[in-house]
Amino acid sequence: MTTPPQPEKRKSPRASLTGVRLTKHADYQRAYAASRKHQSASMSWFLAPQTLASAPFESPAGPRIGLTAGKVMGKAHERNRIKRRMREVLRRHVELLPPRCDLILHPRRTVLTLEFRKLEAEIVRILQQATAEAARMVSQAATRLAKVESNS
Q1: Where are the domains of the chain?
Q2: What's the CA angle centered on 85, arms 40 and 30, to 5 degrees?
Q3: pLDDT given for residue 63 in this prediction
Q4: CA separation for the pair 68, 45 (Å, rounded)
Q5: What topology is assigned to 25-147 in CATH?
Q6: Which of 16, 94, 98, 104 could form a disulfide with 46 if both were Cys (CB 3.0 to 4.6 A apart)?
Q7: Separation between Cα atoms, residue 20 and residue 96, nearest integer Å
Q8: What does DSSP assign to residue 21?
Q9: pLDDT in tens, 101-141
Q10: What H or E segment, with its residue span, contains residue 106?
């Protein structure tokens, strides 16, 4: 009496934000200084290209994400809930992060009551816009470099 073999359940590798989060205050300050503010319906965001000076001992090739939720957003449990919801969306779409860039998301209080699907759609839209802007920044830098080399 043998039991038929069960099909293996493959666990999909859980995407993680480990290693892609901004952790140091100096990284946030550099990203704020090197970027301009963008607006969306329920949050503002900042995109800054990574530089070699931003991470001298780390490889700056990977994208990094930062989340902020100041005290104006509410009590600690509300701020934590906002960040937890945003981290979950980012975890699901970590592959959309713009390469070699630091992205900081600064939510408005409406994120707390926003339907999760709407929050996810908005963050995906922001990630797509950030990727397009990152590509635009790279092409502008290449154009400037070509002009400098042609003048030399």
Answers
A1: 25-147
A2: 60
A3: 92
A4: 10
A5: Ribosomal Protein S5; domain 2 (3.30.230)
A6: 104
A7: 12
A8: B
A9: 999 999 999 999 999 999 999 999 999 999 999 999 888 87
A10: strand 101-107
Check the CA dihedral 55-59-64-69 and report its sign. negative
Which amino acid, one-letter code, is at 123? I
Residue type, 50: Q
Closest CA to 47 of 60, 33, 59, 61: 33
Rg (CA), the chain: 19
Q: What are the tokens at 25?
A: 């205050």
Burial of 1 (0-12, 13-18, 19+ CB in 10 A): exposed
The token duo for 109 is: 């209080």
Residue 119: which of 79, 84, 74 has the closest Cα?
84
Place of tokens 């030399």: 152
